[in-house]
């Protein structure tokens, strides 16, 4: 199945109030800011949205709230888990709430074989358009290129978010994929390399604060302007490294949103804030990036 979800999708943080409850008003504002700054759509209740700490009811309300906030833009719902039945049922609720597509991670902890991965994604894809998410660093297992391509033949599978860190594998997927199957980079710093081997776009974190820059990178590559694409890639690399290595995602990006004037709020345990030293270091890296940071200030009109 081919469905144009967008080339730049921001994996959105979930704003919380001081008491730890979801701040749905802030979620509306953030989604509007992100699309105003260049995102084609957003992913809610993914890793960056602290999905392990959200209830199913909160995940569905986020889909409903964000979809209402950005009419005409795509909202992808994170519905993955290591329990296929749970993922299927949550996916049904997400589609009913207005999701345009589903994002489902390779099952973690129980370490299924490749056949188990195939059956898992097959079941979810029968609910709605599904993007698979391959990220061995969080799941402990890799979905091979062969399994990815086998899944790509399923009518409900529209693409894969590839964060395996293996460019050879990503290249094999891009070379062998059927028409209409899309490959998004799952690592911000790999966006340009993945595009170069045939990828479609990126499901992104740094686009919270550099959306227009990431959109320009993708557009520049598409028109063959490698000099511009490389310039943006190099300009954002220090920021991406700081956001991804200082602490586990989403702690740095959510902390930076708070620092830069957007009320992203606290974290839910077991995640904890950056130390003061970490906060200063990441913020300095962002300031040093200058024009590459295109953060849209709060106040964007929400539909």
Using brief descriptors, characterize the structure shown.
about 300 residues; alpha/beta; about 10% strand; eight-stranded parallel barrel; TIM Barrel; 8 strands; disordered C terminus; globular
- Any idea what the radius of gyration is? 18 Å
Number of helices: 12
Tell me the name of the CATH class: Alpha Beta
Query: Could you state the order of secondary-structure elements as H and E?
Result: EHEHEHEHEHHEHEHEHHHH
Distance between the termini: 30 Å
Give a brief description.
Helices cover 46% and strands 12% of the residues. The chain is an alpha/beta fold and 303 residues long.
Describe the structure.
With 303 residues, the chain is α/β, with parallel strands linked by helices. It has a single domain (8-292), classed as Alpha-Beta Barrel (TIM Barrel). The protein contains 12 helices and 8 strands. An 8-stranded parallel beta barrel has the order 1-2-3-4-5-6-7-8, surrounded by 7 helices. α1 packs across α2 (56-69), α3 (84-96) runs parallel beside α4 (114-125) and α10 runs antiparallel to α12 (276-288). The longest helix has 20 residues, at 226-245. The chain is globular, with a radius of gyration of 18 Å.
List the helices and strands and how they pair.
Blueprint: E1 8-11, H1 24-36, E2 41-44, H2 56-69, E3 74-78, H3 84-96, E4 101-105, H4 114-125, E5 130-134, H5 136-139, H6 145-152, E6 157-162, H7 167-176, E7 182-185, H8 191-196, E8 201-204, H9 207-222, H10 226-245, H11 251-259, H12 276-288
Parallel strand pairs: 1-2, 1-8, 2-3, 3-4, 4-5, 5-6, 6-7, 7-8
């Amino acid at each position: 199945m081919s469905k144009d979800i967008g080339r730049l999708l921001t994996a959105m943080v979930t704003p919380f109030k001081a008491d730890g409850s979801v701040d749905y008003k802030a979620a509306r504002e953030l989604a509007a800011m992100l699309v105003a700054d260049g995102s084609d759509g957003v992913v809610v209740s993914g890793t960056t949205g602290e999905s392990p700490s959200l209830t199913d009811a909160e995940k569905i309300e986020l889909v409903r709230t964000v979809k209402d906030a950005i009419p005409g833009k795509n909202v992808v719902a994170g519905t993955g888990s290591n329990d296929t039945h749970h993922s299927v049922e949550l996916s049904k609720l997400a589609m009913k709430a207005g999701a345009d597509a589903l994002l489902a991670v390779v099952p973690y902890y129980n370490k299924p074989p490749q056949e188990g991965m195939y059956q898992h994604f097959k079941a979810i894809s029968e609910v709605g358009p599904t993007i698979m998410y391959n990220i061995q660093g969080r799941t402990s297992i890799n979905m091979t290129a062969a399994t990815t391509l086998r899944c790509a033949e399923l009518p409900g599978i529209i693409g894969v978010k590839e964060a395996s860190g293996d460019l050879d594998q990503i290249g094999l997927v891009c070379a062998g994929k059927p028409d209409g199957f899309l490959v998004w980079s799952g690592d911000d710093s790999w966006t340009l390399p993945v595009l170069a081997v045939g990828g479609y776009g990126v499901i992104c974190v740094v686009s919270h604060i550099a959306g227009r820059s990431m959109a320009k990178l993708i557009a520049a590559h598409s028109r063959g302007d490698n000099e511009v694409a490389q310039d943006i890639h190099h300009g954002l690399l220090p920021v991406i490294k700081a956001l991804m290595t200082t602490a586990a995602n989403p702690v740095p990006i959510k902390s930076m949103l708070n620092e830069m004037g957007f009320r992203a709020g606290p974290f839910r345990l077991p995640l904890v804030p950056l130390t003061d030293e970490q906060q200063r270091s990441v913020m300095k890296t962002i300031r040093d990036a200058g024009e590459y940071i295109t953060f849209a200030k709060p106040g964007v009109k929400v539909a």
